[in-house]
Design a protein that fits this description.
The structure holds 2 protein chains of 2 kinds. By secondary structure, chain A is mainly beta. Chain A contains no helices and 9 strands. Chain B has no helices and 11 strands. In chain B, strands 2, 4, 5, 6, 9, 10 and 11 form a 7-stranded mixed β-sheet that branches. The chains are: A mainly beta, B mainly beta.
Chain lengths: ~110, ~110
Amino acid sequence: DAKTTQPPSMDCAEGRAANLPCNHSTISGNEYVYWYRQIHSQGPQYIIHGLKNNETNEMASLIITEDRKSSTLILPHATLRDTAVYYCIVRVGKGSSNTGKLIFGQGTTLQVKP
Amino acid sequence: EAQVTQNPRYLITVTGKKLTVTCSQNMNHEYMSWYRQDPGLGLRQIYYSMNVEVTDKGDVPEGYKVSRKEKRNFPLILESPSPNQTSLYFCASSIQRGVGEQFFGPGTRLTVL
């Protein structure tokens, strides 16, 4: 089962920032927070990941709370092409018990509107 | 361009006719994995491979086989497909198990009649 909780859907106006929340209250100290998105039925696309500190790359920013029980993915200037299902995933790093699989929950369907 | 490719992208077949879905990556990744995606069930891992000649079952391996004879290729084999294997299949790869991002292929939509 997914260890994360996300709202099922959100809307965002084109050009505005999209802030997607994720709750992961049972996260362990060695678990990372990953974000992926899936546009229509295409292969999931990696966005960003982090452990404790906030992270930023060319696609998005990831803000993780100090207690690590929740995080927010920020798309700074959403475009119509950002309309997708966004998945927040918690996973361990390297380790003998890790099959490497990603557990995709239901995600948040983000609709960017003109 | 770094990528994962799958073939075919679409396939309609009949029950019992053996088929293979190919997966290839050009990033020299050690780890590769197969998922299936079904409405309401999300993505579920079928098999994974941590390196050449090393494969293991995921959550839903029944009815599937895989092989990893070369680092770049990880074919998914359905020896005797059944209608409950109708699904959208994705291959993925990453540098190592549990490390960094996984790159996904474009998907193969399989229909078994």
